Amino acid sequence: MQWIRIGSSLLCFSLLTACSGQSSADKLTKELDSVKSWTATAHMVGDAWIKGTVPEAYAKETLSKTQEELQKETETLKLADSAPGHSQILEQLKQLKDTVAQMSKAVEQKDQQAMNQQIQQLSSQEQTISTLFKQQAGGHE
Amino acid sequence: MDLIRDVLDNQIVDRNQRNMGKVDGIVMELRDREPPRLAYIEVGMPTLARRLHPRLQRWVAALQSKWGAKHSRCRSRSNASARLRKMGSRAYHWKDSRSRVKTIPQCLLPTPPSGTGAPSPYFLLHNRGLGYYRYWCSHTNLMK
Amino acid sequence: MSKILEIALGIVTSIGGFLDVGAIATAAEAGSTFGFHLIWAILLGTICVIFLVEMSGRLAAVSKHTLAAAVRERLGFNFFVIPLLAEIAVDFLVLAAEIGGDCIALQLITGISFQWWALPVAFAIWLLIWKGNFSIIENGVSLLGLITLVFVFATFKLHPSLTELGADLLPTLPKKDTAHYLFIAVSILGALISPYLFYFYSSGAVEDKWDEGHIGVNRAVASLGMGFGSIVSLGVLIVSALLLNPKGIQVDSYEQAALMLTQPFGYWGFVLFAASLGIACFGAALEVTLDTAYIVAQALGWNWGENLKQKDAARFSLVYTVFVFLASLLMVFGIDPLQLTLFSMALTALILPPVIVPFLVLMNDESYVGKHRNGWISNSVVIFTIALTFVLAIVAIPLEIIGG
Asked: CA C324, C329, C335 angle in degrees (round to 5)?
């Protein structure tokens, strides 16, 4: 019985420390990292598909997953505190998602030229969104 | 012999060295002006459950009575079942050609002295919860 | 000569069998997110597992008891029920993760969703255990697992900076994302110091009828096999650090990890990654499935043995049959394999203390290991590992919540 009490106290303590929470700036940084990660994944998959180092099915599946993850990030950020620049980030995320959808279409149509264009567009959008996130994070600090 | 160290939780094997469970429980016989002696060993899930908590034992015993092996009477025992041979006044040896775990039929178990008012030395023996498997172990090979 | 061959085979199969879904997932995530900063976790986990695996083999060889049977006999059922139930629960999740790894490998190659592959993979695992024998499972599949050496070749091809590698041998906390860093460290240690390894290894030693003459073989297999095997795990981390980290890709799914080998090896790199993932996970799934059946049968004193006919070990066979089918259902229902893997590795870290503590008792008990008791080095390592696992157990859940 004593062991049960000690164990549950430790568990409560652990949960309390776990619920300490992160600052808004940390959360934004985390979301930015996730967006950058999936955008870079789409970029790398696009390049690999053009070079013929990944099969078509894998490219389509990964680009589809990238779109899902970007959508999840959009939903997460919508629930976050709204501040100046917040709507711009959401708009940029939407554009990113659309670009990845275009990349997926290019794979389906086996259009390497279209894929190249979308990859270039993806790179510039990634830089834009990175700048916006940093501005937002700086505003929260 | 240290009963806890050398008997409890040790492996039980049959004559053909096949595993048939572990010693899950020990029943001691308390005797007047004599040291207690090992009377039975117990094998079975209810015994294990009892070691954790009595309520758990009741649940396990209830489950086993619903889905587990059933008691069988000595008269209706089938050819493949355990054959029990009486080897002495109070010692029994069991033999099972198929190494199947079986219960000891009630007709072969000793009855406690009646009318004495004294507490029974075999207090677990009278707890006839279904699913208990008990073996008289005076002349049985318990360990490898 | 036969002893040398036995040692060689043991080392080779240990290398081939070292990598599993937990090691791949945690190493890939560690490398992609934190570069070389978590190399120390792999090295630390490897040292602990070498000692523990050697002890479980020594116990089996000298006492002819498996670890599970010895723990129950020596420490009683009331203690043993804790690691038993914990191990069954963790084995269930780990097996589901391994099946998930296999399914993902098949998805990568065929494009068919991993959920469709869950039941066929589970059936293949069951069939091999049902029809095969211990030698095929231990040696055959592990030899195929040598394909995972592709990560080591990729490492050499990419020429990592040895200075940078050396600098990260000591643990250093990162400036940001500390919780995630520590969570990955805990997961790596949980993936490497896996309880199923010790139980399976000791059961295998008894199945192979090891005796005191095999103590040398055991020592060589444990140290060299596990040691070289960890190089494969390091290979995954280094390749991930060199190729994915600079691009900002953090491995959150196996689809991202699959890009690891495309740069050094082109299209064949993609195929080799899928093959490595599939074979490593298949071998580990066989081990985990058998491990669960072993520990249940050994705990309850049933007849057990992969080399026995099913009718001679009916309950043992029933356990692994039911277990592998139930574990596959998690993948059928679409649970993310990578997230499940990381979760199960953290949970493994949680249950380590009751699994490791018995080593201290058994390996110093003359009635079990006779004159082959632990020396002061082995005892020190066990005590250190116990302390480490207690810390891991306490921080695993909070880190899972904050940094998972």
From this structure: 125
